Amino acid sequence: MDEVIQDIRVRNLVIRSLLEVFPQSKTETRDPSRIIYGGREVIYENFSYVESIPNLIFAACSVIRNSTNASRNMYNFCRDVGIDMENGYPKFFTFHDEKDMPEVNSSNVYVSMTKKCKSLINNIYNSTLFSHMGYVIYFCYNNTQEYFFEKENDFAPRFDIKKENTKTYLITAYPFENLYKNCRLYREAIDGKYWLYHNEMFGLMSNLLKIKGGVTKVDKILNSREEYKVKNYSWWVMKNQILKGKYAPSRCESYCPFINDCKHGINMIEQGKLFKGRIQVVGKRKTKSIKEARKELSNIVNEIIASPQKGIFVIKAPAGLGKTEEYINASIDNKLTIAVPTHKLKDEVSERLAKAGVDHYAVPQLPDIEPEKRNKLDRLYDTGSFKGANMYLRQLAKENEVIAQYIKDLRRVKKSENQTILTTHQRIFFEKDFNDTLIIDEDIVLNGMFPISSMSIQDMAILSQLVYLDPEFSPLKKLTDFMFELITKTPEGVVLKTPNYFMLCAKEIEKLVVKNDLITTNVLGFLNSSHFVKVTGRNGNEQIVFINKRDLPDKKVIIFSATANEKIYKMVFGQNMKFYDVGDVEHKGEIWQVPVRAFSKLSIHRNKKEMMDIANALINRYNPDSKVITYSGFFNDISEPSVSFWNSAGRDNLKGQNITVIGTPHINPYCYLLFASVLGLDVRLNESKVMYQPVSRGNYNFYFNTYSSNDLLREIQFYMIESELVQTVGRARAITEPCKVLVLSNYPVPGAEFISLTQREVKKFIRI
Known about the structure:
Blueprint: H1 8-21, H2 53-65, H3 70-81, E1 85-86, E2 89-90, E3 92-95, E4 109-112, H4 120-125, E5 134-138, H5 145-150, E6 163-164, H6 176-182, H7 184-190, H8 198-208, H9 214-222, H10 232-244, H11 252-255, H12 268-272, E7 279-281, E8 287-288, H13 290-306, E9 311-316, H14 323-333, E10 336-340, H15 343-355, E11 360-362, H16 371-382, H17 386-397, H18 401-415, E12 420-424, E13 437-441, H19 444-449, E14 452-456, H20 457-469, H21 477-489, E15 496-497, H22 506-515, H23 523-527, E16 531-536, E17 542-547, E18 556-561, H24 566-573, E19 578-581, E20 584-585, E21 590-594, H25 601-606, H26 608-622, E22 627-629, E23 659-662, H27 669-678, E24 690-697, E25 700-707, H28 711-729, E26 740-744, E27 753-754, H29 759-767
Parallel strand pairs: 1-6, 8-20, 9-18, 9-19, 10-12, 10-13, 11-12, 13-18, 21-26, 21-27, 22-23, 23-26
Antiparallel strand pairs: 1-2, 3-5, 4-5, 7-25, 14-17, 15-16, 16-17, 24-25
Helix pairs in contact: 1-2, 2-10, 8-9, 8-10, 13-14, 16-17, 17-18, 20-21, 26-29, 27-28
């Protein structure tokens, strides 16, 4: 067998099934306490064959259905083995993976997930070659293991079983013409060009008979060759059994002889139709072991560090692979500048550097100050007045020793030589140091190089008034009038390049901003921006949303990221950038994804209760008691308050824990347009329609709400969404930890296993 049987009821089922298939065998084999020695006459011989419970049940049922009084014999068989009946057959379901296992409501069932079982053969050869699909057997209420121990030597009981008839729901509106085009086995089978062996016929039937109209196609296949006529009755029995039984559609890899000749999905059904609310995996995911990936990562880092060449080097490697350990080791013999996303992560890295014996300087975090003074400082930062904020900090330093020490510590960066410096992403754009190599932990393109901000048009009106009222700034009147006229007359949704001469008045306007607290949005950021677009906010007020472009220092820059997009990075840094991709790595943990709903902010706003019911039902079924990460302020009853989308980078406090990630982190479409404009694409919102459509990305086909006619915009959208999803999923460190991550989103997470649910099943969750 492909598993070690430790349940006496299953053992009896095996023997009873074999006696049906081989009636010549001795009935004494029913007794598990006896040793039966082989006789002289060998009926059947195949010493390398491995059998499974589903195959045995199917074989036994096929023999019974070919007998006289088939219905009575099937009933007697089920009574003998103590299995309830459904649609005239033993009640049992098959499934491929644990995630596909049907809900078990009965109290007396036997569940076997054979891919996780050990068999005597697997133990010897340490191989999963013989791992068949899992199954659920519904034993009748009084068929328990305890019964056999109480009834000694009673190995031929007759159990009281239940009989029921259930409805089978078929897939409707299926395009068989697409299947004919995409599946070679189906095409050659229905045309009679290919002789089907038993296993191949079963595979075809188990798929086609799940589709409305599939019976007709199966009949056409059975009549496609004269040679099939001798097996017509046995294959009719097979067809009837599959129709009434709960057999999972066979996967292409388990039976198709052309598996290496086509780009196939999971099963034949998916070869012909892409279903909404599902993600179709095409081809096989190529992975490497953690050991191989870590060695490759180490070799790449050592090669780059040793090279005298300046430039941008990007290393894409999954979260949890050991990127931090690599650059800490590199710091032992090299003086590096290391930039991380947050001060919290900076403190963690600082501790690890100290443990490794690396002398380093960590750039300090702004200390706590009184709320009133902090609000004034925040206003200066919000308006883009960094110079004004620094001046205000120096004023506070005269009366506050802590702030004075903070400013003194900041100045050390410019003077530090022959020392590793630990800083944050934001500071590398404004502070220079003497180190030749900069290490950037996490994606800097999204997290620092292209900040997107907004300015209220009302603030621009206030600025114009302040210029008119203050004689000191009268030379700016014409320029501010032109600025105000430009942004008020600009049509909404049109991305424009910000005029360069706006920067000429930035210093004077900064003086106005510092003197007056009426302006609260980022006016100075707009003056220094690259592109802008006018939009109407949720409150009905008009805003200018703009994007800035910052350049990295001119030195050797090594970027470690789990989400770097090679196409986007080459557009940002040029073709001379070196890009290294470690690739997919085997997971010690599991990532399961249910793509039946997007769980976008908009869909949750529209029907919060329904979305909450579905989310709770899916969590209870697939990942109970897990930590939930979603949008900030959403699902507060079940979500982690300290972690959310756009606030998870670098966090390690959920390492090894089961987590559930809810949502597809879309951002404002204007951000995609602005980013595309910075990369050189002239695009307008009304020229790029968004629609729900089938798309392909890597090994995945799926439906998604995206741009229909602009490939770059779609690439940018997918890059931003995927980056945030992968970053959030990575908090559990499923690569190295035996944890489970459940993702409720309709955008595919690389490396996830997908759970396909029907709309009927989803509606059931809503009613729970």
